[in-house]
Specification:
TIM Barrel, Thrombin, subunit H, six-stranded antiparallel beta sheet
């Protein structure tokens, strides 16, 4: 029986190396960053040199860097993808996050592979298939409930990664073709046009308008901060923050917030869980995810069926934090509020009016509870105010806001040829010999030596303890002590680099078989190498990816979000009979048909058939 505590990883996004560095400083055990090409966020690719610098910084703390190479690939791109994989390996990237199975047949370096959430990882069978194929970590679908996560963890021993915070895709990831069909931009190619964030008008089978210009597919943002321990006990080892397009302030704030949440659990349960990297982060602000971009928060389907709406129909923009309600209105620019949150001149506020419309404004002046808007507003008593731009908080985050250090113990003692310094980080001890003449001092020297050896401010280390073991007081010039200290630290850093071990590539299991011999366009097979992979493992009928051969009647999206349930018109209830289907969403020239798979409690979106004379069928 293995009683070793399980390593737990906080995984943060990095738009670039500078933001990745901030994620590490603010407590991340690992960061994920876009490869130069073929990442699921095409706008967030980084150069190999940039990624190499991030790896060098992260590995000081035994933290890891994962590169996203997670789009589907065309035949002409395979050679370049293979070349990039080798470049990333040489840059000391710890793992590649991939979607396309063609990579398993290429000449890849011995680098660990993680199965992107774009692989559609929502069943025990699929996760085990990926583990058997050689993936060492699998990113689970965001729609999963706690019970479903438990079932997957019970069926496999592969490391499981789960999203805990950030934007949600309304479709099952990797199964959305809405952007490709409407805008010619494939989400599976990193070019999602975010059609789910658009306003739509909903009509029923008779043409009656049920809702006009509402963001009916725009989900709130995920926040599972109150469920971390449940996820740990369910089997999750990597906790992922979404946001590879987010700026540094967002990454700093959200990473620091979840670091504190996870550390509190690890401190209580050291026999069960341990941190995956080293070092302690000192944070110069009070983290609060409500102060960073958010569309309102949801736990999504973590508890199976949500108690509250999971969409924000008024807007896809950031709401921020609730600050209070309007109590009285003097004129279009002057009003009072009842909140306990202190507001400041220049703060950005927003609200949803009584008609369900979203508006925002800057505060020109704050006088206690009296607020003065910079522009005229249509406010009435009772409206909830939100702050989506806190000028004071943003100013804090604009400056250096964290220092991460590894505690070390230094021991200074005599040897025959002079002195020596032992320096220990808890896992290893290095010794630096300091040959020098021993000159007795006329005054006590130990505190001066201790103070000089403690000066580790420009290194990843902090002196937790400095022990002086000499038979008498010796005079050593400050410059000499400083040089010895730097040399001892350099030896420790070399030893740590030599000791660093990246994750190991898992070997594929012999006899691997696909879950079904028939694979349609949703298998996202866009090249001959991927086709060969599935054929080799038992597939007998393979359709090309949607991006290769668009299908008129294809499911463009399948989702657990149900507009009928949101409207209180579930087909399993009497109220559902009053809303005649099929239902349609329209935006400009785009018209979509909604179908409802009640057996699986899922909504399906297809392109609407061309209108014909007469009533819709």
């Amino acid at each position: 029986m293995n009683n070793k505590p399980r390593a737990i990883e906080l995984l943060s996004p990095a738009k670039d190396a500078a933001i990745g560095r901030e994620a590490i400083l603010h407590g991340a055990d690992a960061v994920y960053i876009g490869a130069p090409r073929f990442g699921a966020r095409a706008a967030a690719g980084c150069s190999v040199d940039e990624i190499a610098r991030l790896c060098d910084f992260a590995h000081q703390y035994n933290a890891r860097v994962y590169a996203a190479l997670n789009t589907i690939l065309y035949d002409k791109e395979l050679a370049e993808a293979e070349q990039i994989a080798w470049q990333l390996y040489r840059a000391q990237v710890d793992a590649l996050i991939v979607q396309d199975m063609s990579l398993l047949r290429l000449n890849l370096p011995p680098i660990a592979l993680h199965a992107s959430t774009q692989c559609d990882n929502r069943t025990p069978e699929k996760v085990q298939f990926l583990a058997d194929a050689g993936f060492s970590q699998v990113v689970l679908a965001r729609e999963l409930s706690l019970d479903e996560i438990r079932a997957i963890a019970a069926a496999t021993d592969v490391t499981l990664e789960a999203f805990i915070h950030g934007a949600l895709c309304v479709s099952y990831s990797g199964q959305c073709y809405l952007s490709a069909a409407i805008a010619g931009r494939s989400a599976n190619r990193g070019e999602c046009a975010q059609c789910c964030r658009l306003p739509y008008t909903l009509t029923d089978a008779t043409g009656r308008v049920v809702a006009r210009d509402r963001h009916l597919l725009s989900l709130k943002d995920l926040n599972l901060s109150n469920s971390i321990e449940q996820l740990l006990d369910a089997g999750i080892s990597s906790f992922k923050i979404e946001g590879r397009l987010k700026e540094a302030a967002y990454v700093k704030n959200v990473t620091a917030y979840y670091r504190a949440k996870i550390d509190a659990i690890l401190e209580r349960r050291p026999d069960d869980y341990r941190r995956a990297s080293e070092g302690f982060s000192e944070i110069a602000f009070t983290p609060d995810p409500r102060k960073s971009f958010n569309r309102g928060f949801t736990t999504y389907f973590f508890h199976r069926q949500p108690d509250e709406p999971i969409i924000q129909a008024a807007t896809p923009k950031s709401l921020g934090e609730p600050v209070g309600k309007i109590t009285s209105v003097t004129d279009a620019r002057t009003f009072r509020y009842d909140g306990t949150v202190a507001l400041h001149n220049g703060d950005g506020l927003c609200y949803i009016d009584n008609a369900g419309n979203f508006s925002g404004f800057r505060l020109n002046r704050v006088d206690g509870k009296q607020l003065y808007a910079a522009t005229p507003q249509k406010l009435t008593p009772g409206i909830q105010l939100f702050r989506n731009s806190d000028t004071g908080f943003e100013a804090e985050l604009a400056h250096p806001s964290a220092r991460r250090s590894i505690a070390v113990t230094l021991r200074f003692y005599e040897i025959a040829t002079g002195f020596a310094i032992d320096i220990s980080d808890g896992n290893r001890v290095v010794t630096h010999r300091c040959d020098a003449a021993k000159i007795e001092a006329r005054a006590p020297q130990r505190e001066r030596i201790k103070a000089e050896l403690s000066k580790l401010g420009n290194t990843p280390f902090t002196a937790e303890q400095v022990i002086i073991e000499t038979s008498r007081d010796y005079f050593i010039p400050v410059s000499q002590l400083s040089e010895w200290r730097r040399e001892a630290i350099a030896w420790l850093q070399r030893a740590r680099r030599l000791a660093y071990r990246p994750p190991q590539r898992h070997t594929a299991r012999a006899g691997l078989r696909v879950l079904s011999p028939t694979l349609d366009y949703r298998a996202n097979i866009a090249n001959a190498s991927a086709r060969d992979f599935y054929t080799e493992h038992g597939a007998s009928h393979i359709e090309p990816a949607f991006e290769i051969a668009q299908i008129d009647d294809a499911e463009l999206m399948r989702t657990r979000h149900c507009i009928r349930r949101y409207l209180g018109a579930c087909l399993r209830t009497p109220q559902g009979k009053h809303l005649q289907g099929p239902l349609y969403l329209s935006n400009g020239n785009t018209r979509l048909m909604l179908l409802f798979d009640c057996a699986h409690c899922e909504m399906v979106i297809k392109k609407s058939p061309r209108r014909r004379t007469g009533s819709p069928k």
